[in-house]
Design brief:
- The complex is a heterodimer.
- Chain A contains ten helices and ten strands.
- Chain A is globular, with a radius of gyration of 19 Å.
- Chain A has helices spanning about 15-25, 30-50, 65-70, 130-135, 145-160, 175-180, 185-200, 235-240, 265-280, 295-315; strands at about 1-5, 75-85, 90-100, 120-125, 135, 170, 205-210, 225-230, 250-255, 285.
- By secondary structure, chain B is an alpha/beta fold.
- Chain B has a five-stranded parallel beta sheet.
- In chain B, helix 1 runs antiparallel to helix 2 (about 40-50), helix 7 (about 170-200) packs parallel to helix 8 (about 220-230) and helix 10 crosses helix 11 (about 345-365).
- Classes of the chains: A alpha/beta, B alpha/beta.
- Chains A and B meet through helix 1 and helix 10 of A and strand 1, strand 2, strand 4 and helix 7 of B.
Chain lengths: ~325, ~375
């Protein structure tokens, strides 16, 4: 059994204060960047101590998950707040009114690659289909054209941020499971992933938070990715048991949106029995989604809980 | 009377609540005169004398808030939520069975303190009663007390109680059950008792704020059940306020809410052109959908955009109201309101907007003879 995280981590109160101070002009850009790096270092250390297989820098300087992709592109404006799926969190909606073209460099500060050993480095971005679904598009006549263009820009962001590679690239696709997709929508999502997969190193994980994995089964098993992540707070075990596949399965079994601490013995028992049922040689586990909508202390506690589960699994 | 005018919620903090004493004194005098606040000189004297008792200042802030809406000429008013800082943390602090867990992000670097329910919620004290009783003493106009709705309190909290110990095959179903229990308990044991106690003490209008209503489209029926639990046996006219939402996601379920008025935001998505052309009134298109369902309640479309300093002319307000009346096919079904509270606007801008609201409603009545 291996464990890792699947999304952003929350800012500590000290970092929230640093951002507020920066907003009021009390600290400089460089001072804020330094603070972000210090905080990211603490979170990387925490994940290392927890024995996680892949390491994330926590994405602490991401205001939302879309901005690093759209910033620096012509043809789009980030305008107005929109709800992030069914969360009390809002992202800036990209409004696309012209051809998407890169204006300047990708901002490399979006990944603290120096803190992350290459073979365990994890980079997390939305998949092209989700980027398209969450945008307002008045330029591209066909959605598939927008998905394809976004896949190209996304690949460029991936390859710039992780210049010398990574251990795992995660593409997050809540849009595929938040509502049941049509066959046509599944095909567009697969096409976007194929473009990224052809331009970026493997392995790639596709994570599906905020909805039942049953919405995309069994089609998702043919997607060009190595790992498929399910949100087990929304996916029934029975649904997974109905299919068999060579793909690696990630079980998002710790609720990434609730402060209730799961019991480690029950989680372990559930993972082991599900692993047996699915015939998995290796089980990947962790939270159901990014833990950025938990308070910092709760997220840290959940990482420690994951560590405990992994240790107990080793003892078995 | 057609097109009664109603305020929706908060104002920016009173202009005399500032660290700058000179400005405070000047603002207290200027607004005291402009709003004809009785005995405003006492506040001026208080501020000039260097005495800064917070309770006294908040009392005056409430009075100025009430007079703000009175002077603008609105029919149903409140104090601009002068004593309140926000709508979640304050009520939760008066409920047993909740424990604050820390800061949680809402957007960019904006955060709120989020609590977890750890036991069955029980009301410690009516957190709005003192405020209402004070306000009642300072106006003869009908007051509408805003209270945060049970579904929103549930949606904005963690659950460490209802989910704990629940097991089953389908995790989504378990969560749905837990959320239902939580929202209904908050309606039964917290928000309902607060509303009833306000009504028993003379509140004739209550506004249940449910900004989270459309967060989870699959839970709209729960929003309705929770609101209906709050209004059960309540001797007051109830308005539910839901703003900046795709209202089509809530229909038709919200038609089952047993309420007098539904307050919604429209002007933020509208143009500022005059007239009754659908392209000019695009923010009010949703009313046509409401008409198809013939709601049993009145609709209070926001005819004032609270997110801009642009002052709507009375003629624009008139056209928005007449268009709403046409959209709903019944002018008696329309209440004149803002999109939301005016907290983000200066008092100068907010006051001009409210004057336009009142005058625009008068013009709309006049147009219908």
């Amino acid at each position: 059994m291996i464990g890792y995280l699947v999304g952003p981590l929350p800012r500590s109160e000290a970092l929230i204060k640093a951002y507020r101070d920066h907003g009021k002009g009390r600290i400089s850009d460089a001072e804020l960047d330094r603070k972000v790096s210090e905080e990211a270092e603490k979170l990387v250390k925490l994940q290392m101590e927890a024995g996680l297989a892949y390491l994330s820098d926590g994405m602490l300087n991401w205001q939302d998950q879309l901005r690093p992709v759209f910033e620096g592109l012509d043809g789009v404006e980030l305008d107005g707040l929109s709800r992030w799926f069914d969360n009390n969190f809002f992202y800036k909606k990209p409004v696309i009114s012209g051809p998407l073209k890169r204006r300047g460099e990708v901002d490399r500060r979006y990944l603290q690659s120096g803190l992350l050993p290459r073979e365990r480095r994890k980079l997390i971005l939305p998949d092209p289909y989700t980027l398209a679904r969450l945008s307002e598009n008045t330029y591209y006549g066909r959605v598939e054209d927008l998905v394809a263009v976004l896949a190209e820009h996304l690949s460029e962001v991936v390859n710039t941020l992780a210049l010398d590679g990574y251990g795992q690239l995660q593409l997050t696709s809540p849009s595929l499971v938040f509502q049941r997709p049509s066959r046509d929508e599944l095909e567009k999502a697969a096409m976007g992933l194929e473009i990224v997969a052809s331009r970026c190193p493997r392995p790639i994980m596709l994570h599906l938070p905020y909805g039942p994995g049953g919405y995309v089964m069994p089609d998702i098993l043919d997607f060009p990715v190595e790992v498929i992540g399910f949100d087990m707070t929304a996916t029934s075990r029975k649904m997974l048991e109905e299919y068999s596949s060579e793909k690696t399965v990630y079980l998002g079994i710790l609720d990434g949106r609730n402060s209730l601490m799961e019991r480690d013995d029950r989680v372990l028992e559930e993972c082991v029995s599900l692993g047996d049922e699915l015939g998995l040689t290796e089980i990947h586990v962790g939270p159901s989604c990014g833990m950025d909508l938990l308070p910092y202390g709760v997220a840290v506690e959940k990482i420690r809980l994951l560590s405990k589960i992994l240790r107990r699994a080793e003892e078995l | 009377m057609l097109f009664p005018t109603m305020e929706v919620g908060s104002l920016r903090k009173a202009p005399f609540i500032t660290g700058d004493r000179g400005r405070a004194v000047e603002a207290a005098r200027r607004w005291g005169l402009r709003l004809s606040v009785p005995q405003y000189e006492r506040l001026v004297q208080h501020l000039s004398g260097g005495s800064w008792d917070e309770k006294i200042l908040l009392d005056w802030a409430s009075i100025y808030g009430l007079k703000f809406f009175e002077a603008a000429g609105l029919d149903i008013i409140y104090d601009g939520e002068a004593r309140r800082h926000e709508m979640y943390e304050h009520p939760i602090r008066y409920v047993e069975g909740f424990s604050f867990r820390g800061l949680v992000r809402v957007w960019d670097n904006e955060y709120y303190y989020k609590a977890a329910v750890t036991d069955r919620p029980r009301l410690k004290a009516n957190y709005h009663l003192e405020e209402f009783l004070f306000n009642r003493e300072h106006t003869s106009k009908p007051l509408k007390v805003p209270i945060t709705g049970p579904y929103t309190l549930a949606d904005w909290s963690f659950d460490e109680y209802y989910l704990a110990g629940k097991t089953g095959e389908n995790p989504a179903e378990i969560r749905r059950e837990a959320r239902h229990e939580m929202a209904m308990d908050l309606a039964r044991y917290v928000v309902g008792p607060v509303a009833r106690s306000l009504a028993e003490n003379g509140a004739t209008h209550i506004q249940v704020d449910e900004p989270a209503a459309a967060t989870k489209p699959s839970e709209v029926e729960l929003v309705v059940d929770a609101v209906n639990e709050v209004v059960k046996g309540l001797n007051a006219e109830v308005t539910v306020h839901i703003c900046y939402t795709d209202y089509s996601l809530l229909l038709p379920s919200i038609l089952d809410m047993r309420i007098a008025n539904l307050s919604i935001s429209c002007s933020n998505a509208d143009t500022t052109s005059l007239g009754m052309d659908p392209s000019a009134r695009r923010g009010f298109k949703i009313l046509e959908l409401f008409r198809e369902y013939s709601p049993g309640f009145r609709v209070a479309p926001g005819v004032i955009d609270v997110h801009t300093d642009f002052i709507e002319s009375p003629q624009l307000v008139r056209d928005r109201l007449l268009y709403s009346a046409r959209g709903l096919d019944d002018p008696a079904k329309v209440v004149a309101c803002n999109d939301c509270g005016l907290r983000t606007r200066s008092w100068e801008v907010a006051f001009e907007k409210e004057l336009s609201l009142v005058e625009g409603a008068r013009l709309a009545r006049e147009a219908l003879g």
